[in-house]
Design goal:
Blueprint lengths: L1 E6 L2 E10 L13 E11 L5 E10 L8 H9 L3 H14 L11 H18 L5 H10 L3 H5 L3
Antiparallel strand pairs: 1-2, 2-3, 3-4
Helix pairs in contact: 2-3
C-alpha cells in the first residue's frame, strides 16, 4: 500500500508493509500485526530527499485494520498535536507560564481549550489571528459568547 501527498513545499510518499508472521515470536501481549512504514520526503525548493523507516505493532487484527487504515492512523497521529497542543503553545505561550501548583494548570488549560474551541465553532481557521481580533475589540468576545 502506498500514498503520495503534496503540500507545504514537500512531496511525501508513504508505503506500509504489514504482517502477522511475527506474532507468535513477539513477547508483546495482544499483538495483532506488525508493520513497517517507509516515508520518503522530497523538499521541492531544495530537491533534497530524506527517507525514514518506522517499525510498529498494533493490537488490531488484519480484519479490524487493513494496511490502508493503519497508514491513516499513523498519518493522523499528529492531529492532536497540531490542532491543540501547538495552538495552545503558539497562541498562548503555554510552555512559559508560571502556574504550576494545585489545580491551576488544569483550569488554565481548560479555559484555553474553551477559547480555542469557541473560536473554531465561530469559523476561525487561524486561532492566533482570531485572538488578536478579540484583543482589539471590546464587543467581539461578548458577541462570540452570544451577548
Amino acid at each position: 500500500m502506498e500514498t503520495v501527498d503534496k503540500g507545504h513545499g514537500r512531496l511525501e510518499r508513504r508505503s506500509i508493509q504489514v504482517s502477522t508472521a511475527l506474532n507468535d515470536y513477539l513477547r508483546f501481549p495482544y499483538v495483532g500485526q506488525v508493520f513497517k512504514i517507509r516515508r520518503s520526503v522530497l523538499e521541492l525548493k531544495t530537491g533534497r530527499t530524506r527517507t525514514e523507516l518506522v517499525y510498529g505493532l498494533t493490537s488490531l487484527s488484519p480484519q479490524k485494520a487493513s494496511p490502508e487504515l493503519l497508514l491513516q492512523y499513523n498519518r493522523g497521529h499528529w492531529t492532536i498535536e497540531n490542532r491543540s497542543h501547538y495552538v495552545r503553545d503558539f497562541s498562548f505561550d503555554e510552555d512559559r507560564l508560571q502556574i504550576r501548583k494545585g489545580n491551576g494548570p488544569r483550569i488554565m488549560a481548560t479555559l484555553r481549550n474553551i477559547a480555542i474551541n469557541l473560536l473554531r465553532l465561530c469559523g476561525a481557521t487561524n486561532i492566533a489571528k482570531a485572538l488578536r481580533a478579540c484583543q482589539r475589540s471590546k464587543t467581539l468576545p461578548l458577541a462570540l459568547l452570544g451577548y
